[in-house]
């Protein structure tokens, strides 16, 4: 299928390609990447690449169950080229843009005991017997989201701490220094274990302090206005993006953000308010990508944490709860917000079957600049058909 107008985004999870790809779909060489980038441009109509990189996790810690460490290492082909140099170069040669893909709320966790992993795991194929954890959260677990009893939400940091916001911004920009990227794509998806209920976490001391100063209620010991608390947490996220915008703009980098459709962060994390309207209105983001999902792998379509869906969400893309159908949502909510701004709106298509008529209908909405596609799914029909993901 060839798109006539090149406005779409090729979303590339390089690690999935290297681990599970086939032939050129492994993207293991510069030549294979060149050939596939030509395909992304002509067949997916892509004029931008979001390259999911691994450098922000260069000091992460890893754990593997007995017998699994070497097995996983053997899957990766040797890489002798610098993807941060090659990807922008190849994109620019084709008149495309290249954004470095960064994750904000996906800092990993320790490896649970075997008895726990048997009944509770990210997925049974490649996420059951391995664990990754950022050095930052390993050294500073106090920066993870806490519940009322002080239990941690592994992988999800609290943006109420200025130290967290400063660290993430420095990490993003430092790994890009000296390279020719056009922008940063910050993804709000997470592979963290879902909360048991949507309002479980968000009781860290800075949140408690700020809420008490503003509303006179102690969220640890008193009843309080849930929506005001959710909105406060959303303010921290908006503050983070505002600070990142200022820092990235100074370096000539655009800012794109991707998350769930609707007004909350959503499954599997929380009811934290996403004030995306302010992000657009105030010029904080150059591009907004909506309709992403944390509950299904966009490359392999494996269900993630199927035994832990959680409950209590005010909106949920899992069941369409309190959400309009996509095209109605675009017309009623997103069109007025995008109008008269310089921002571009994209709809994530990694979790949808290809359908030329439906895609054309969504693209016909004047507020939609394009769609985002999974390069893995496009490049690897053989592995997808075989479904051989198990490690």
CATH superfamily: Glycosidases
CATH architecture: Alpha-Beta Barrel
Unreliable residue runs = 1-5
Secondary-structure-based class equals alpha/beta
**Radius of gyration (Å):** 20 Å
Quickly name the level 1 CATH class: Alpha Beta
Strand count, sense and closure of the main sheet?
8 strands, parallel, barrel
Number of helices: 14
Estimate the strand proportion: 15-25%
- The helix-strand sequence is EHHEEHHEHEHEEHEHHEEEHEHEHEHH
- Globular, elongated, flat, extended or rod-shaped: what is the shape? globular
Assign a percent range to the helix content. Answer: 25-40%
Overall number of strands: 14
Chain-averaged pLDDT = 95
Q: What is the total domain count?
A: 1
What does the model show?
The protein is of the alpha/beta class and 391 residues long. The chain has a single domain, classed as Alpha-Beta Barrel (TIM Barrel). Helix content is 35%, strand content 18%. An eight-stranded parallel beta barrel has the order 1-2-4-8-9-12-13-14, surrounded by six helices. The chain has a two-stranded antiparallel sheet with strand order 3-5. A two-stranded antiparallel ribbon has the order 6-7. Helix 2 (30-43) crosses helix 4 (83-93). It is globular and about 60 Å long.
Strand-helix topology:
Elements (H helix, E strand, L loop, with lengths): L7 E6 H7 L9 H14 L2 E7 L8 E4 L4 H5 L9 H11 L3 E7 L10 H6 L10 E4 L1 H5 L4 E3 L5 E6 L4 H15 L6 E5 L17 H11 L10 H24 L4 E5 L5 E3 L3 E4 L2 H6 L5 E4 L35 H13 L5 E5 L7 H8 L4 E7 H5 L1 H6 L5
Parallel strand pairs: 1-2, 1-14, 2-4, 4-8, 8-9, 9-12, 12-13, 13-14
Antiparallel strand pairs: 3-5, 6-7, 10-11
Helix pairs in contact: 2-4
